[in-house]
Amino acid sequence: MTRAFSVLGAALVSLLVVGLTPSTAPAQEDSDVGCTDGGLAVADEANALALAVECDQPVEIELARGYAERQYAQPDGTVTLESYLRPRWAYDDAGNWVEADPTLVVSADGAVSTAATVVDVAVSAGGSGPLVTATDQSGASISLSWPTALPAPVLDGATATYPGVFAGVDLRVTARTDSFSYALVVHSAQAALNPALAGVEAGIAADGLVVSQAQDGSVVATDASGAVVFSAAGASMWDSSEPLQAESLTADPVPGGDLPGADPGRVEEVGLELAGGTLRVIPDQAMLTDPDTVFPVTIDPTFTASKLAWTVVGNGQYADSTWWDDAAWPRTEGLRIGFQGWTAPGSEGYGRWRSMARFDTAALRGSTVNSASVQLTVFHTGGCDSYPLELWHVGGLTQGAVPTSWNSTSSSWSRMVDA
Fold first, then answer.
1. pLDDT band for position 8 (50/70/90)?
2. Contact criterion met (CB below 8 Å) for 62 and 69
3. What predicted TM-score, i.e. pTM, was given to this entire model?
4. pLDDT score recorded for residue 234
5. Which residues are bridge partners to 8 per DSSP?
């Protein structure tokens, strides 16, 4: 029998599919679970469906839990799948599901690693050894090493800062639920003149993976099947200036039209070169030596590892630019949709934006989907009026692929979804 499913999507975006027809697998023995006011969960689907009818409320199916999804048996005999665009849960050290938490914590032996993440990220506690090691669920890993001994890090949430790796330059590693980035923070024009910043090298090694550089310039680590497990694409650097405001906004903004201030005033691409076991980051020297550059400047290559994917694309000056999720600028902590006109034409951030997302829908195979919806949370809008929002089917997204831009995807917007 096929399953009837409802699907709900959330996090940055969540997909909700409702009405999966349940499978015919027999119920497993489960401990007695009484009806309570919400929060019911049992191991298998059959018991969850029976309890949902008995208690007249949704019951979570524990064996169907995933890093970015949950399934709930409904009193009407269907199952609801909640699928999130980013991982929301991870296993803790005891093997229990907990809310994903990329905070860097120090263990009893002095090691520093993330609290609970899909990709375990361990960073240097100082001295020699790897700067950062990221290990995925299969045990495959990738490591970066700094060429000299590191000072003890200053920990702040998910970020470890190693001060003074060059004069006036800090090294910063930031962990996420399924990725990490490392950045150089150049604090002054004098520090930017350091010849070491012409090309910054780090050792790169992998266990169970093969590291190579694709023709598009991205650095990828692939498994034995050729699947990309980690990738670094679209590295950027930016200064601390602010974009030039549009003339219409030079006066006090209208109520509710506050400027987000998330975009830097200047952004440039950063080159990546892989040679053997060395990854070389090549900053834009014109930006570092420009007297108009506002310091500090952040130079930020990022490694991502996710079966889920989302990206923003912009027209005009960004028509051929690629950004994957929040791992690289523009870091708005979410999707960009619509026209951004509060900065002047040609300034960073200006233009029309679209966002594309890929959900893991493996749980829907063999099911009948009765209904589906997508839910988004609006963090900021530049205006107070109502604006139309369209949902489209697009072609497949490959995490880390370059280019994934306005121009390269314009022909893949195949069909608008009816409201």
1. very low
2. no
3. 0.83
4. 66
5. 16, 373
